[in-house]
Amino acid sequence: QRGGFGVQTDISICGGTYDQVAILLNGVNISNPQTGHLSADFPVSLDDIVRIEIIEGASSRVYGASAFNGAINIVTRGGETSGGSVSAEGGSYGSFGMSARGSIASGAFANSLSAGYKQSDGGTENSYFRKSQAFYQGSYDGGLSLSWQLGMSTMRYGANTFYSAAYPDQYESNARIFASVKADAVTSLAGGRKIHIVPSVYWNRYYDHFQLISG
């Protein structure tokens, strides 16, 4: 971690670099194509996560060149049951955060929506941050299984010593928008064998603004 609360975090598996680990969200690749420094900017909160699956070793054949040393798949809870939750936190140095999550299940459809915000003025010079995220997930489990998700995240922070100790006034802001749709069709073959056909389409958009000397 370069900053508190995971403001910018590099992930390594088996000695590989942050550019050699693929990050997946429910099986969809959300790795940042510009730099692995930003791949851990997840558009989900901790309350959304059911489990984290880690694949060690070369996985490029399955997940692309970014999975040279492994892959991490974040699995989120859907809207299988209806309900909701709200949480808030606070602390010193202007630290504050809040999040909310709700889900609705109706017949073969399930939907969930979450959003969160966190900020801090930082305990050292130019170490403040402001970050937010929102995530929607839906699914249909009928004759054909479908799942879709939409997420966004934004972050602004003082990047003191992140890239060079010679420039304490560094500043960076990032934004991410992504969407995906995935299907799971099962075809029966002779002898009771089955084939799963899982087509998926996803779209990622990233924004990165860096100032070596903020004004």
Topology:
Layout: E1 22-25, E2 28-29, E3 49-56, H1 60-63, E4 70-76, E5 83-90, E6 96-106, E7 109-120, E8 129-141, E9 145-158, E10 171-188, E11 194-197, E12 200-211
Parallel strand pairs: 1-4
Antiparallel strand pairs: 1-2, 3-4, 5-6, 6-7, 7-8, 8-9, 9-10, 10-11, 10-12
Structural class: mainly beta
Outline, from the CA principal axes? globular
Number of helices: 1
Q: What would you report as the Rg, rounded to the nearest angstrom?
A: 19 Å
Order of helices and strands: EEEHEEEEEEEEE
**What's the N-to-C terminus distance?**
25 Å
- Detail the poorly predicted runs: none
- Overall mean pLDDT score? 89
Biggest sheet record? 8 strands, antiparallel
- The portion of residues forming beta strands comes to over 45%
**What is the subunit arrangement here?**
single chain
The number of strands is 12
Helix content: under 10%
Walk me through what this model shows.
- With 215 residues, the protein is an all-beta fold.
- Helix content is 2%, strand content 53%.
- The chain has one helix at residues 60-63; strands at residues 22-25, 28-29, 49-56, 70-76, 83-90, 96-106, 109-120, 129-141, 145-158, 171-188, 194-197, 200-211.
- The strands form 2 sheets. Strands 5, 6, 7, 8, 9, 10, 11 and 12 form an 8-stranded antiparallel sheet that branches.
